[in-house]
């Protein structure tokens, strides 16, 4: 594999066997996954001042700023990345590199989530922005194919819950549902901004049978998750680690509340992002992260990077952390990968084929 096209993910040893495992990434933000060198080049073109002009130092600045222990503070780092992504060319480049970075991470299916409403301060319309991202991902897929690598990508369009553009973003997603857009999301600060405030958009999508995965249970507690599931009909939950507040479990035994039981019994997929959760204060450490207890109780957990730049991470690194610090083994990783694939917003027959042709043989070849 060409290392210039597919750089080894940050914090990952190139000989780590986990790097060779086939992976799925469901919760992976475009504007949280830019390469530092690309930010520097794009900023120079737009006369945007950066806190550092060296890629390594800039990457460290993002990680340090994100280590705030607060979701609102963590989100402030996106002012820089969104600022350099205000042209079609910049969005296309970012999406192309985002796709190639998935390949370098061993990801064969990736959903790219991002908020078009944040990329129209220049001459772009939201439709232009969606087309630019799709173009970049298609270019990345083509480059990977030329190098003998396979990757499938799709877009999830995000509306910001603190704004009032959700209906327009929902309509945008429906216009592009046959051109690479497979889902809708609400992101941004949870506290004080319930998903149900965007009922018009969510009702439209539900009526059109269009999937939604909503950020919830990251810093808004159980009420955020109840709102997303009961009032808004989310079929997946972004993060969802606050579900542990609805259970009393000791040594694998105890009681769980009605919401936790609903999530467990219906196997609602949780898009868990361990390193990011620690940065925002949703968890204290990898050792004590709720994902392991939830896995052991049978919840439908998946492993995701959230923001590759801010957390200096990848799916490979998240898996390695869980193996080294939380006792996961290769069977756990395979179950989480299969769960992510089954939760993907693509047709069932495609998911079944990818499971049989890529996931099962891919895990059989690797020994940790």
From TrEMBL:
Coiled coil: none
SUPFAM superfamilies according to UniProt: Metallo-dependent hydrolases
Gene Ontology BP terms: adenosine catabolic process; hypoxanthine salvage; inosine biosynthetic process
EC number(s) given by UniProt: 3.5.4.4
InterPro entries from the UniProt entry: A_deaminase_dom, Ado/ade_deaminase, Metal_Hydrolase
GO molecular function annotation: adenosine deaminase activity; metal ion binding
Gene Ontology cellular-component annotations: cytosol
Keywords: Hydrolase, Metal-binding, Zinc
Span of domain Adenosine deaminase: 22-359
Named cofactor requirement(s): Zn(2+)
EC main group: hydrolase
Domain of life where this protein originates: Bacteria
Family label: Belongs to the metallo-dependent hydrolases superfamily. Adenosine and AMP deaminases family.
Name of this chain's protein: adenosine deaminase
């Amino acid at each position: 594999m060409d290392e210039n096209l597919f750089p080894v993910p940050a914090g990952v040893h190139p000989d780590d066997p986990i790097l060779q495992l086939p992976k799925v990434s469901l919760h992976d933000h475009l504007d949280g996954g830019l390469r530092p060198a690309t930010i520097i080049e794009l900023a120079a073109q737009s006369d945007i001042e950066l806190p550092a002009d060296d890629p390594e130092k800039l990457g460290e600045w993002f990680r340090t700023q994100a280590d705030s222990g607060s979701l609102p503070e963590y989100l402030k780092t996106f002012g820089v990345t969104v600022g350099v992504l205000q042209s079609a060319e910049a969005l296309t480049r970012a999406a192309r590199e985002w796709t190639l970075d998935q390949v370098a991470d061993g990801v064969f299916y990736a959903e790219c989530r991002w908020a078009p409403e944040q990329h129209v301060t220049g001459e772009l319309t939201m439709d232009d922005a969606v087309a630019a991202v799709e173009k970049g991902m298609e270019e990345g897929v083509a480059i990977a194919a030329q190098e003998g690598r396979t990757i499938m990508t799709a877009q999830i369009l995000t509306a910001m819950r603190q704004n009032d553009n959700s209906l327009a973003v929902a309509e945008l997603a429906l216009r592009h549902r046959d051109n690479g857009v497979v889902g809708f999301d609400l992101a941004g600060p949870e506290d004080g901004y319930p998903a149900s405030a965007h009922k018009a958009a969510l009702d439209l999508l539900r009526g059109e049978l269009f999937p939604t995965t909503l950020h919830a249970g990251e810093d808004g507690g159980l009420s955020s998750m109840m709102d997303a599931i009961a009032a808004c009909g989310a079929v997946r939950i972004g993060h969802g680690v606050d579900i542990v507040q609805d259970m009393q479990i000791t040594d694998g035994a105890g009681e769980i509340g009605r919401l936790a039981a609903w999530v467990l019994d219906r196997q609602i997929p949780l898009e868990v992002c361990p390193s990011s959760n620690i940065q925002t204060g949703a968890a204290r450490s990898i050792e004590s992260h709720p994902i392991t207890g939830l896995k052991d109780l049978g919840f439908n957990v998946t492993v995701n990077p959230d923001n590759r730049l801010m957390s200096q991470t990848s799916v490979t690194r998240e898996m390695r952390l869980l193996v080294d610090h939380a006792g996961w083994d290769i069977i756990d990783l395979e179950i989480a990968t299969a769960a992510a694939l089954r939760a993907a917003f693509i047709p069932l027959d495609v998911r079944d084929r990818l499971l049989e042709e890529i996931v099962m043989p891919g895990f059989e070849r690797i020994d940790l």
